[in-house]
Amino acid sequence: MTNDLLVTSSCCSTSTPNPAAAGNGRNLLGGASDDMTTCPVMVGTPVSKMAAEAAGLYRDHEGERYYFCCAGCGPAFDSDPAKYAANLK
Prior knowledge:
InterPro entries: Ferritin-like_SF, RNR-like, YHS_dom. The protein has a two-stranded antiparallel ribbon with strand order 1-2. Strands 3-4 form a two-stranded antiparallel sheet. The protein has four helices and four strands. By secondary structure, it is α+β, with helices and mostly antiparallel strands. The protein has one domain (19-86).
């Protein structure tokens, strides 16, 4: 038995750059603001809608489209869409 540390990291804690959160190289603080949203699973994480769509990182729920910062957020959203959708309201 090992004494592994319990890591409470997000689904997005990877060393691989995330194109959906990167905003396609745009400055996240300005410009193209209607392309930017936040991830409903990792609240506060910026997401480029265009990059997320290109990467397939989105779901439609009750007539709204939700964009994710990483591949792990889609399955989390699927487990309870209403809960995560409420995070953006």
